[in-house]
Amino acid sequence: MYHTIILAGNLGRDPEMRYTPTGQAVTTFSVAVDDSYTSSTGERISRTIWFRVSVWGKQAEVANQYLKKGAKVLVEGRLVVDASTGGPRTWNRQDGTVAASFEVSARTFRFLSPRAETEATEPLTELSELESGGEEDIPF
Q: Strand, coil or helix: what is 58?
């Protein structure tokens, strides 16, 4: 079986990069995706859905270098579920209410903001060079 999720949204904060004990780079950031629908009464309802995204390897270094809060990004990856619930990661806030977090492990990402908005000063590396794996990774 195979699943994928594609998100297009804005970064909610600057990316944070760290390294695993084996030396692999991982960058995390949050993406806000706007969603709207019309209720049964005809009222237009707008909401924002937040996703926590993890990018690995060379792409993690590129994301950390060029992405900034507010930048538009397209992310393709897979949902990471909580092992105990099989759904989003849940926890209790300090006020006692339950909160949930949708987490995505990115396979690829694309810059959607114009270069001037991200304030990049160096040429961007082609993401196709950075994508890990190839067609042999496709499970069908």
A: helix
